[in-house]
Amino acid sequence: MPSPLLLLPLLLAGPAPDSLWVEGAADTPAVALPSIAPIVDATLPALLEVRTAPASLPPGHPPIPGDDLRGEATGFVIHPSGLALTNQHVVGCEATVPVRVGADTESITARVLARDATADLALLQLPPRDAPWPHLPLGHSGQLRVGDFVVAVGNPFGLAHSVSLGVLSGRDRPPERASEYAYLQTDAAINPGNSGGPILDLGGRVVGIATAIHRQGSGIGYAIPIDAVKLMLPGMKAQGRLVRGWLGVAIRDVARGVEIVRLEATGPAARAGLQVGDVIRTFEGRPVDSTRALQGFAGLGRPGHTVELQVARGEAVEALPVTLGARPSGDDDACPPSGFFDRVLEGLRPR
Predict the structure, then answer these.
(1) Which of 67, 113, 274, 278 is most exposed, with minimal Cβ within 10 Å?
(2) Eight-class DSSP state of 204
């Protein structure tokens, strides 16, 4: 039997390949596809690698290579003075966290200026230096359309400066806890370690902060909309925590708004003349289509600021001014421990 090596020249000398297919010419011009490389180049200098406290792996999860289980989460700088953002669940209760900025290999210490557990947001301050810190511009998450491309940049599983491209898959995905905003949903790859990292539009502007993944769905990640973050930041910077607006009502969903089922006797709504059974339809002209919507509008409002509510009482509809109070402190001031893995959510439904 002939050696297979002896048969090779015979095979090569067989029918010309152009009888079965058409060879592409070497000089065929390539199709010019857009690249997100310029966005990545502009983003990486402002990206933070945040070292979280030691954490244990979830049951059944393969071990992470290395000697310890300290996590490498993500953050990003938003101001030349060194203000930066990440998730609260990344920093936990720590007063300071070690970070690496951009391509720097040495860690520096960032102070945690403010944190809020419910919003899952933490504001950091990098050390002062002579040169301004590289920083990312903030965009407008409300202008995104479902189907728009977005870019996720972070440190998944300790793989620094990883980039993924996807689309805005949906909006108004409610978080698992009461909060002032609903999540953005994206299929851009978000994995453990992406927590606190930027979600960018194709202009390189931050439109969200990666915060969670869905337990039962591959390619389902969630981000805090940057429009909500902008409303939270001034209070967090000034007071070290998020002070929420408060109406002092218990409410339930009804067909055209939310109905008041209980009033705090000395709360802002009671002082303004609202009554049990009133149906709140709008808040500062914005439709109130769910209890979460009203909680969000009020929570992101400034205590002491007077807002106008459209209220239906029986057959009458009237506009009532209400001066927001400050919501009493509660679980928002708690410090759940930090950890390596992104929050994993399940059972979310679109509103």
Answers:
(1) 67
(2) S
- Which residues are the active-site residues? 89, 120, 195
CATH architecture of 248-323: Roll (2.30)
At the top level of CATH, the class of 141-241+338-345 is mainly beta
Cα dist. 221→186, 211, 216, 229, 339 in Å?
A: 5, 8, 11, 18, 18
Q: Decide if 88 contacts 121 (C-beta within 8 A).
A: yes
Mean pLDDT across 119-128: 94
Structure tokens at 120: 């899952």
**pTM for the structure as a whole:** 0.76
322 contacts 272 by C-beta, under 8 angstroms? yes
Nearest Cα neighbor of 290 from 258, 263, 313 is 258
**pLDDT digits over 37-85, tens only?**
999 999 999 999 998 755 443 444 343 333 334 468 999 999 999 999 9
